[in-house]
Specification:
Chain lengths: 259, 259
């Protein structure tokens, strides 16, 4: 496992004035990671190296293979070993392939019931609009490469708990949720997940797998992300570009002074 | 199959002045598509509906399952039927899962030899820097949703041949390449592929599968995208934001007046 997600390479840059420079450039590292359970490959993902155990753990959570820390016997660079019950559960679902195999959204809904409503789980507009800057400040690699996504888990007062970066938005979310899972913090039922970029179905579903009631993204959500959030009782926020944002579902969790 | 990749929904928007509006909003449609060969599911991808046959065809090309139009007996919403030779080839590789299963980059390199060098395959700086505007002009859905990627295939004079949009960058590339494949235009050895967003390994590899010598992206490439392009004799251009751009590999295909 590497300590940095950045590689430096000499490239040719054409500048605004048409002049050419041969200069070093920082690129986001992308390499394949096989996620194995025992000897069986569950999925191979193209990810930025680092926090690989977290990535594997978060992936297993989002695939409903594990629900509690104690279900994992060992997790390491050579694979994940599950305890017996989880191994049996894995046996029943391993025919579907992890990252690509969202074969049946109905099956996902069955694995992850909607978030329970809780009137005190609310976030102030001021807090919500403070999050993108907090995420960016903690995103060291983006500034250098411009090519890496981030996922942050914040509490309802806006305090950052975990921030992870990866070339894939879904991997960044897996790493953040995986860290929380390994620390025994799930469900994150009083937290908000913020992702750079867009909110696809997969991001909202991963949030649900960790029990996260509020999912926000800096860019656009998809129709399926919105419909899934509506059904799973999750608040979905898009285009979070302070002072503006859009609310796509369960607006009751955002304290809107003027509403 | 639908004619549009956009769904309209009522959402709450917080405006810059803090006022709230309940208004219709255009969202990119995201829905699962199963790509089947006969009765076997090869992959399930989350895509924007429309041009599904192209998506399936492009995917099969990039997975080295088909190389020529005549290998496909039928292609439809209910699946792809292959002719005998290709079906046998599919049988030998079907254990690897499509979208997630870039199990072995070495295996990919074996399936797709490097692009042959051809001194006349070059693009002028002026032509290259004209492409982002041409792509954007043809990208109707992005303007409305802000949440959709595009892939464009251009000839070396900058003439747009095929432009496709999708919520997933890799799907947009599959659709564009799939269209070219169905029209019998492969290899696209005198063309350039331009994608919105970043250039991951997958994008460069899909370009290679269609024989495309020049791949450009509006944002950052990854280390693996660059290394793969260098090995496969492809020119990789990143941060194509006229008048600037970066050259990561095989710069000889870009005519640099001042170099």
């Amino acid at each position: 496992m590497k300590d940095t997600g950045i590689g430096s390479e000499k490239i040719i840059r054409r500048k605004r004035d048409g002049e050419l420079e041969y200069q070093p450039d920082d690129l986001t590292i992308e390499e394949p990671l096989e996620i194995r359970i025992g000897r069986k490959t569950l999925a191979t993902t193209m990810r930025t190296p680092g926090h690989d155990e977290e990535l594997a753990a978060g992936f297993l959570v989002s695939e409903a293979i594990v629900r509690e820390r104690k279900e994992i016997a060992t997790i390491s660079a050579t694979g994940v070993k599950l305890k017996l019950d989880s191994a049996q559960r894995f046996g029943t679902i391993s025919s579907s392939c992890g990252i690509c195999g969202k074969n049946s959204i109905a099956a996902i809904r069955q694995n992850f019931p909607p978030i329970a409503s809780s009137p005190e789980v609310r976030i102030a507009t001021e807090t919500l609009t403070s999050l993108p800057d907090l995420l960016r400040e903690r995103q060291g690699d983006f500034v250098r490469t411009g090519g890496i996504h981030a996922a942050g888990i914040f509490d309802l007062t806006g305090k950052p708990k975990i921030v992870r970066e990866d070339i894939g938005r879904h991997n960044a979310v897996d790493k953040a949720i995986g860290r929380a899972f390994l620390d025994g913090l799930l469900p994150l039922d009083r937290h908000i997940l913020l992702v750079s970029g867009r909110a696809s179905f997969e991001i909202v579903q991963k949030g649900l797998s960790a029990g996260i009631p509020i999912v926000a993204s800096v860019s656009a959500p998809s129709t399926l992300a919105m419909n899934f959030a509506r059904e799973s009782n999750q608040t979905l926020i898009g285009f979070l570009r302070p002072p503006s944002f859009n609310l796509y579902s369960h607006v009751e969790r955002v304290i809107l002074e003027k509403y």
